[in-house]
Fold:
Amino acid sequence: MFTQLKNIDTAFKHIKLFSYLLIVACAGISCFAIYKSYQSSTDFKNHIYILANGKALEAFAADRKSNIPVEARDHIRIFHEDFFNLDPDDKQVQATITKALYLADGSAKTQYDNLRESGFYANLIAGNISQQITVDSIQLDMNQYPFGFKCYATEKLIRTSSTVTRSLVTQGSLRNVARSDNNPHGFLIEKWETLENKDLNTQSTKP
Structure:
């Protein structure tokens, strides 16, 4: 009888131990399932689908801090392209300059006013001259705020008879502002000035 009771007690201990192990295993599986569900939910939120030309393209959301240098350089590039890419058309000049001025402070407006008063845009239109710019490189100092930059670019003044190539170097700083339709990167160029704008060569385009 004692042997039977001992066997029952041992069996009860085994069942008790098995129950504890089963509870721990269930708790572990539940915690793992909750973690994976949260992870999947976070990953799903970071997936963005962009509709382009009737096709859904997948993109990934990222923290702005990891993209600041990329966005800053793109902001600088777009500003210079809008400010310097010009055709002999008064409406086109006004449209692109207006877009550029949304991206910078009064220093850019001052340069525009100086060029307009000197007759630069009028001569551009009267002479049927197109101006094109290629941004070669942008140096960005992310160690202090506002972020200082230097932009190195190549300009081309295209006439019927010739093409003049110029070297352009500008500098300024970037300050954070609210994003908007007119300023999607959320930066504002400040203290913008031209350090160099000199002719490199002139190529004749006459037949």
